[in-house]
Write a structure and sequence with these properties.
- By secondary structure, the protein is α/β, with parallel strands linked by helices.
- Strand 8 (164-167), helix 5 (173-182) and strand 9 (186-196) form a beta-alpha-beta unit.
- The protein has helices at 13-23, 63-79, 108-118, 148-155, 173-182, 225-236, 256-259, 289-297, and strands at residues 4-8, 30-34, 40-44, 52-56, 84-89, 123-127, 142-145, 164-167, 186-196, 199-206, 214-221, 243-250, 265-271, 284-286.
- Helices cover 27% and strands 28% of the residues.
- The structure holds ribose-5-phosphate.
- The site of ribose-5-phosphate has 12 residues, from strand 11 and helix 6.
Amino acid sequence: MSGLVIIPGSAHAGLAADIGPLVGAPVVPVQVDRFPDGELSVRLLEAVRGRAAVIVQPTGPPVDTHLVELLALADACRRAAADRVIAVTPYFGYARGDRRHGRREPIMASLAARLIEAAGVTHLIALDLHAPQIEGFFHIPVDDLSPFGVLLEAVRPSLPDDVVVVSPDLGRLALATRVADELHTDAAVVHKRRLSGAESRPLQVIGDVRDRGCLIVDDMITTGGTIAGCVDALLRAGARAEILVAATHGLFASGAEDRLRLPAIRGVWVTDTLPHAGVGMPRTVVPIAPLIAEAVRRLGP
Ligand code: R5P
């Protein structure tokens, strides 16, 4: 027997509920609890035997809690004889731990990949993995979807004339160039030096931004420090105070709203890879359920 069923993790039940009807699959009720000592307890409340179980669980903050819950759900599906276990982690926590920065450090993205595989996941669907090499940390198929088609369609009507697409660091330059090509315009990059996990210092803008509006593209906004620094560098380089920001993952850690309350920022667009309830930051949220549903449908029944 085959057929998809959606398993909603507690990290983003709303996204699971959006994907279910789009792929024509029922959402299996799940009980997630804590034992008195704090240990996790999960239970699937309906059978998944012989089915393709699609667990929807972005491993966003609190990352460790959501990651362990994903592992528990995958193990539960496997032990309940699911035919395949597909993890949908639109936001993949620890993605920034994609290499060692010094001696005696772990590679957290690689560790997370090994744990997910060991728990029984047979296919992973993610969105805009921070670094393409993360796919290589897995030995199972990984679909790394790009949200920039849908993000760009949402931003397009608000783009200023003569816009330049800006990458806030070298890591996003390929993306900025792709988006610039799509818009038949130029790309620029801000050379950034990271001082610590929470602080980075932009040094200079490479590319022509003088008297032009800008679209900054990035994979995530966490503290807002990268974007705020990028805006500052662009204005110092003579860009017009007409700057839009498009990022895949809106984490908006505490303080991000204040850092991004800048008159030059005319709008912020993010997707709903993470739940947005309680985020005070003014922004436009672009739904990604249709994109994920398309990828799930392509896996077959
Ligand atoms: C960095 O390599 C990433 O692509 C983002 O630019 C960064 O993680 C954003 O974090 P924050 O908002 O804390 O500066």
